[in-house]
Specification:
Blueprint (H helix, E strand, L loop, with lengths): L1 E5 L5 H9 L4 E5 L2 H9 L5 E8 L3 E2 L1 H9 L2 E10 L3 E4 L10 E4 L1 H5 L2 H6 L4 E4 L3 H11 L4 E5 L1 H7 L2 E4 L9 E9 L6 H4 L5 E8 L5 H11 L3 E9 L7 E8 L3 H11 L3 E10 L5
Parallel strand pairs: 1-2, 1-3, 7-8, 7-9
Antiparallel strand pairs: 3-4, 3-11, 5-11, 6-9, 6-10, 12-14, 12-15, 13-14
């Protein structure tokens, strides 16, 4: 299975994709919009995307892309994020004057960077990409913050491991496929116990509250509620919901319960909840 990821080989998305589909073939793509385009056009069979980090919050662009493409979430997984200071082999701490990484990774290593003021933090588009750049330029004055897998992939060296501020750092990833090709419960032999939905409520007082009360009356447990603005319609919002379901029938009832109160309801996927 060809699986698109946003970023370079050795990234956390690469690691998550291998966890979800161990024999998958990774297709690295620079931009998230292009990942979804490749999936929609059939250039790849699946995409592995980060959807939420326990410290940084949601990846909002990916919610928008899930809504606007004919795709479905098939699986989810959780990945413990461990950041490492990575250099060329043989480089010592005192030689480093610049550190490159994705802005989120830099933000999650503030204490380490504050303790090493000689290192100027510089943003890069991807954690693994910063290691790739380091090796390609043979830059002995620079370091990168990325995963252990990135260091292995590019032949670099971990100078200091586990430099993140908070060890309770997890990212939730989705495996996404075209709706027409997403595996069914019978094919995976795994009964889904979680569902993701997107909906917009009708423009009347209390519509959102009523919709959520209806779900609560069914005993459906909401684990996430996120709002996103509707592009081109100021002050209108799409709500994204994750909820636990005890059966396929409960999932269907939840959707039907929402419809009378909503202008739009879209199911984004049903899948097994990832274990930590």
């Amino acid at each position: 299975m060809k699986i698109a990821i946003q970023g370079e080989p050795g990234s956390f998305s690469h690691e998550a994709a291998m966890k979800l589909v161990p024999d998958g073939q990774i297709v690295p793509i620079a931009l998230s919009a292009d990942v979804f385009a490749a999936l929609s056009e059939g250039a790849v069979e699946a995409a592995c995307i980060p959807i939420e980090n326990s410290l940084a919050g949601s990846v909002l662009e990916h919610f928008d892309l899930l809504l606007t493409h004919d795709v479905r979430v098939e699986q989810e997984t959780l990945l413990r994020i461990r950041h490492n200071l990575i250099v060329l082999p043989g480089v010592a701490m005192g030689e480093i004057d610049r550190v490159f990484s994705h802005p989120v990774a830099l933000a999650q290593c503030r204490r380490f960077l504050a303790a090493h003021p000689a290192m100027k933090a510089l943003p890069a588009y991807d954690t693994a990409g910063s290691v790739k750049q380091l090796v390609e330029l043979n830059d002995r004055r620079a370091a990168a913050i990325a995963s252990e897998a990135a260091a292995r992939h590019y032949g670099a060296q971990i100078l200091e491991a586990g430099i993140e501020d908070n060890p309770e750092n997890f990212t939730r990833f989705f495996l996404v496929r075209r709706v027409s090709e997403a595996a069914t419960e019978q094919e995976t032999n795994k009964q889904p116990n979680k569902m993701s939905l997107a909906f917009s409520v009708k423009n009347r007082p209390g519509a959102l509250v009523v919709a959520l009360v209806e779900l609560a009356a069914m005993g459906t447990n909401l684990t996430k509620l996120e709002s996103r603005p509707v592009h081109g319609k100021p002050w209108e919002y799409i709500f994204f919901v994750d909820c636990q379901i005890r059966s396929e029938e409960e999932g269907e009832r939840a959707i039907e319960t929402l419809r009378p109160h909503c202008a739009m309801v879209k199911e984004l996927g049903r899948y097994r909840e990832a274990a930590r």
